[in-house]
Amino acid sequence: MATIVMKLNGIIYTTVMRLPYSPANKIRVSALLVLILAFASISSGENTYEDNTSEFLKREYSLSKPYQGLGSSSSSHWEFMGNTMIMPEHIRLTPDLQSRQGAVWSRIPCYIRDWELRVQFKIHGEGKKNLNGDGLAIWLTKERMQNGQVFGNTNFFTGLSVFVDTYPNDDKQHERTFPFISAMVGNGSVAYDHDRDGRFTDLGGCAAHVRNVEYDTFLLIRYMKNRLTVMMDIEGKQEWKDCLDIPGVRLPQGYYFGISSATGDLSDNHDLISFKLYELTVERSPEEDQQEITLPSVDYRVDPNGNSNNKIIHSLHFSISYFTEKYKCLYLTNVFFAQFTWRMKEGASSPPYFSSLFPSLCWL
C-alpha cells in the first residue's frame, strides 16, 4: 500500500510541475495538492492505531539480534537463566531434550502505562503431534528470575502471563485444539493448574498451529486503557488475527517482562527471535489519569462456553485470595474454594452458604 501511495504522489507532483501558470491551473494545483496530502495521510496512518494512539519502540525493554543487551554484567538490560543458550540467530530457551527450563528476564521494571509487545518465536522439534512439549510463556510480573513448574516460572505469580501451550495435559477435555494460546492474571495467591491446562483461571484464548510450521510465529500483546488484546500471525502473511480481547484488566506498574519455557518427558526447541516493546500514547480523562492500581485484577471473566458461573467463581477467587493474604489461611481457603467450585460447576446458581462457612476457615 505504501508503495502505491508513493507512486501516486510522484505522478501528481510531476503533473503539477508541468502545468503552465494560470488562474484555472491555480485551482487545479490546489486540488492536486489536497490529493497529495490525502495520500500522504493514508501512507503515514498505515501502521498506526485508532483511538488517537501512536507507538514508540522502547529499546531498554526490547531484545533483537545480535542480543547485545543480554548478559550477566550489571550494564545488561536483560539476563538469562537455566538452559538458555544465546545463538547468532535466536535465543534458545530450551533445546529439544527432556526436563529442561530456560528464561530471559528484563532487569528494568516497566512503568509504561499503555504498551504493545510484539514477540517473534519458533517452536519446533522431532516429536510427532501430541508427543512434544510443553510450550512457552510471556510474563509481566512482580517476581523475576525464579524457576518453577509453570512453563519454567514460579506458580502463584503476581501479574500477567500469556501462555503458548503445545501439549494437552488434561486428556479428558476435548473442546480445545492444541497448541493453544491463553492469558491469565494472577495476584500472588491464584494457582495455575498445569494438569488442567489452566482452564479454571484463564481469561480466554484460541487455538494456534505454531509448531513445526514454515514461518516464524508473531504474537502481539497490547495493554491499553485497561484492555488486554492478543493477536497472532502464524502464516507469514503479515496479517494479525484476533485471539482474545478482554476489558477490565488492571495491571500495576513496576513489574518485569520475561519469557520462559520448559520441557518435561516430551520436548521441543523453543526459540525466541525478537521481543519488542512499544509505548502507546493514549488520550485519557483526568479521572483515568488519577487511577492507581496496586494489585492485578480482572473486572469479570467469560469462558469460551459462556458459563456465567465462571464470572462468580473468578471474582470470588480474587476476593478469597485477598483475604488469604490478610488472614494467613491459604490452605483451608483453597480446600473450601475447591468444594465451592465443584458445587458451582454442578449447577448451583448462587453460593447461599458462602458467608456462613468462610469466616470459620480464617482467623486474625
Structure, described:
By secondary structure, the chain is of the alpha+beta class. It folds into three domains: 2-44; 54-289, Jelly Rolls (Sandwich), CATH 2.60.120.200; 307-361, no CATH class. Helix content is 23%, strand content 28%. It has six helices and 17 strands. The strands form three sheets. Strands 1, 3, 4, 6, 11, 12, 13 and 16 form an eight-stranded antiparallel beta sheet that branches. It has a seven-stranded antiparallel beta sheet with strand order 2-5-15-7-8-9-10. It is globular, with a radius of gyration of 25 Å. It starts with a helix and ends in a 7-residue tail after the last helix.
Number of strands: 17
Summed up, the helix count is: 6
- Structural class given helices, strands, pairing? alpha+beta
Order of helices and strands: HHEEEEEEEEEEEEEEEEHEHHH
Gap from first CA to last CA: 64 Å
CATH topology of the largest domain: Jelly Rolls
**Rg over C-alpha atoms, rounded to the nearest angstrom:** 25 Å
Percent helix range: 10-25%
| The CATH top-level class label of the largest domain | Mainly Beta
**Judging by the overall fold, what is the CATH architecture of the largest domain?**
Sandwich
Mean of residue pLDDT values: 79
**What general form does the structure show?**
globular
Largest sheet composition: 8 strands, antiparallel
**Low-pLDDT segments, ≥5 res:** 1-9, 36-52, 303-316, 319-329, 345-364
- Number of individual domains: 3
What share of the residues does DSSP label as strand, in percent?
25-35%
